Amino acid sequence: PTTIFLKDYTPFGFIIDGVELTFRLAPKATRVLSRIKFRPNPDATDKRFFLHGESLTLISAAIDGKSADVRDVDGGIEADVPDAPFVWEAEVEINPQDNTALEGLYMSNGMYCTQCEAEGFRKITYYPDRPDVMAAFEVTIEGNEKVLLSNGNPLSQSQGFAKWQDPWPKPAYLFALVAGDLLNHPGTFTTKSGRQVDLNIWVRPGDENKCAFGMQALKDSMKWDEDVYGREYDLDLFNIVAVDDFNMGAMENKGLNVFNSSCVLASPETSTDGNFERIEAIIAHEYFHNWTGNRITCRDWFQLCLKEGLTVYRDQQFTADLRSAPVARISNVLALRGRQFPEDQGPLSHPVRPESFQEINNFYTATVYEKGAEVIGMLKTLVGDAAYSKAVDLYFDRHDGDAATIEDWLQVFEDSTGRDLGQFKRWYSQSGTPRLTVREDYDGDTFTLHLSQSTAPTPGQDEKLPQVIPVAVGLLSPNGDEVMATQILELTEAEQSFRFEGHATRPIPSILRDFSAPVILEQGIDKTRRAFLLAHDTDPFNRWEAGRMLARESLLASITTGAAPDAAYLDGLGAVLRDDTLDAAYRALMLGQPTQSELAGLLHEAGITPDPEAIHTASEDLRNAKAAAFGDLLPVLYQDNQIDGPYSPDADGSGKRSLANAALSLISRTDGGALAAEQYAKADNMTLQLAALSCLLDAGAGKEQLAAFEQQWHDDRLVMDKWFSLQIMQAKPDQVAEVTKRLTQHPDFDMKNPNRFRAVMGALSMHHAGFHHKNGAAYALLAEWLIKLDPVNPQTTARMCSAFQTWKRYDPARQTMMSAELDRIANTKDLSRDTNEMITRIRS
Ligand code: DPP
Ligand code: ZN
Asked: Where is the Peptidase M1 alanyl aminopeptidase Ig-like fold domain (predicted)?
């Protein structure tokens, strides 16, 4: 396999002045005719005329009307072309029906759709399939389907025919085509300059009642981007299509977003509050790409974080504005710690801007997305809100229509603020999670914080240089008043001290407020201090964090010494739960505790081999201790957070349901599931129904309800995904592999559908104690299915290999078993490039 390097970038030898495509749709033999105007690129040194192409049958090719002599080369074709403008015409045949990889043009439930990011367009026709080649597209579709869609605005439409024109030059990865017997949920939006935009969500018949929420989220996103970033939509039409078979969550194709149906379809009966929130965020994310990604795209795929980090940051801001900012921030940090930290601390660690890859699909990672967003947040913290807005405005002014780089992005900040961002840029090039260590001093007047930073070596990077870390700090007095409001300390050296004068009593610092940098904070403070912060911190994130740390320390003590759950933690938590000035969603988050895989990671970092069984036992014990300690409080929380009246997925309602459901899950540990059964019986929305079922299964009950649930929902694929997952998530560790295996034999288990595959195999790999059960059955089962899926869908297979990324954390017996499974995958004949790269990196 070839490795591609950032440093080898060269521009394409030609510029495109226009692309015309004609699709003659047929399931097994679609013809694609292309007519592309090329001219030599004066800025390019490499003049080779190379077009990408994969799995294409070439019917004919012509240059300026004369049959062209094309040479097959690795990954595409070459031809000799004039040193002047010319027209390339080609006809190819492709087979959408058999395209199970879901890249390029494929079929899902009888409808045609496309996925071109990152490199799928080359499976549609011969083309310079690279993001720095931008062109205006005109697309003709001939097909029997009722609805024929492509990017941009419709030029003409009649039975079996549609012509679309996208006036905005775009890279091929933003191309899209959809054809099917679809229905639309319509809407309109009037932009700030008074232009009316038609909006549609296109779905398969039967799903029309699940579009209203997504439509509202789209309108909210359009308004928000105008209000906050000054960005207006730029076409007369914006289409969203829901597709059942989709590798990603959604795709921001110009004017024609294609969504995994799980990320757009919603109704109270079938979707949980979590689904609604996720849908709102993803609709916003894809819409925001119209400016950060589409109008300004990436020069090459190494710059992926330029659009993804920024767009995730923007969708996080949107959620914080629409819902509760502290709750949103805590959720983002939980996701970062849950997915990005393990990646950055294991064999798959890579910089936010990677410097090499074999298969770019493998770099749509938590590091590029979530850490990429954290980097934008730090930049904003460092320069301040006003300077951030000014710099981003300059970015849009200067680079509209460009395929840009991280250098371009940082340059607008340097130019508009005068600040040197040379050191800050290390956040893009250095991988690994920095560790921030704090020591305190006090001399009767001056309080001093000694901060130091270090980052452990990561694959390919032995030496780490100090990064710029914005550390948000506030000071509290011993009675809990804030004596210094939040300040940003800029840590730029390996070690630095910050002095705070004029404190007659020793203040208590609250450090890394709002999680101001994606680092591991080592504070060396005791329980009393944490309990104080849990009770008094004025920063909601750090208040939550104090509770989280107490829970963490309690669990680690139970795991390593068998200690009982920490009474100080339970006391402090009880006080917070009783404080009904705090919103319900926040209190529900307080009731949570570190995941078992997070604990395994912490033990590993501390040089202790994690024992999944002991971790599981300690986690269960802590939950049981909460159930016992809050025996009187939990029914009150449950009762106080019941909602009369119709379901609404807003922040207030979902917060109440999350607190009531969190209480229910603890109550179910003592009442055998009686209250959960009651809730199940009367639930009129999926949030309550699913939570009740989950509690019942956890309590070892719920057989009847599980069957009833299947009966009720067997026709709804998205709900059935939950039914599959839940049984695995709630299985006892020694049952997990067996339950999973049984579910793979269920007639509705279909590995070709990525949602279903992930519902089952994802749940298997995320059940820490079950996946790592000492009998090794889960390792073998996952490997077996990854091997089966690889020839069908390499992208999803490769993504799921990361379940094994932490294999070196565990004891020799488990390592040997996981290593054997990795070998088995690696030795599979004709393994895809995607999976091969992942397994090679994981084993290294
Ligand atoms: N569709 C994916 C996303 O929006 C890749 N661009 O993040
Ligand atoms: Zn994105």
From this structure: 432-523
Which ligand is located closest to the Cα atom of residue 253? Answer: 1
CATH superfamily of 614-843: Peptidase M1, alanyl aminopeptidase, C-terminal domain (1.25.50.10)
Catalytic residue among 286, 359, 545, 553: 286
Give the distance (Å) from ligand 1 centre to CA of residue 250. Answer: 6
Instruction: Give mean pLDDT, residues 792-798.
Output: 98
Please tell me the predicted confidence (pLDDT) of residue 408: 99
Closest CA to 443 of 489, 397, 504, 394: 504
Strand 76-79 relative to strand 49-52: parallel, antiparallel, unpaired?
Answer: antiparallel
CATH topology identical between 1-181 and 614-843? no
Instruction: Say yes or no: CB of residue 370 within 6 Å of ligand 1.
Output: no
Q: What is the pLDDT of residues 415-449, one digit of tens each?
A: 999 999 999 999 999 999 999 999 999 999 999 99
User: Cα separation of 130 and 729, whole Å?
Assistant: 41
Fill in the amino acid letter for 143: G
How far apart (Å, rounded) are the C-alpha atoms in residues 540 and 579?
14
* 372-393: pLDDT as tens digits: 999 999 999 999 999 999 999 9
- 118: cis peptide before it, omega within 30°? yes
The predicted structure's pLDDT at residue 1? 85
Identify the CA nearest to 280 among candidates 305, 250, 245, 244: 250
117 lines ligand 1 (CB under 6 A): yes
What is the residue extent of each domain of the chain?
A: 1-181, 614-843
- Structure ipTM: 0.98
Contacts of residue 648, defined as CB under 8 A and 6 or more positions apart, other chains included, come to: none
For the Cβ of 250 lying below 6 angstroms from any atom of ligand 1, the answer is yes
Tokens of 586: 């926040």
Cβ–Cβ < 8 Å for 395, 380: no
Determine the length of the chain. Answer: 844
| Tens digit of each residue's pLDDT (9 = 90 or more) over 503-550 | 999 999 999 999 999 999 999 999 999 999 999 999 999 999 999 999
- Phi, psi of 823, deg, nearest 5: -65, -45
Q: Which CATH architecture has domain 1-181?
A: Sandwich (2.60)
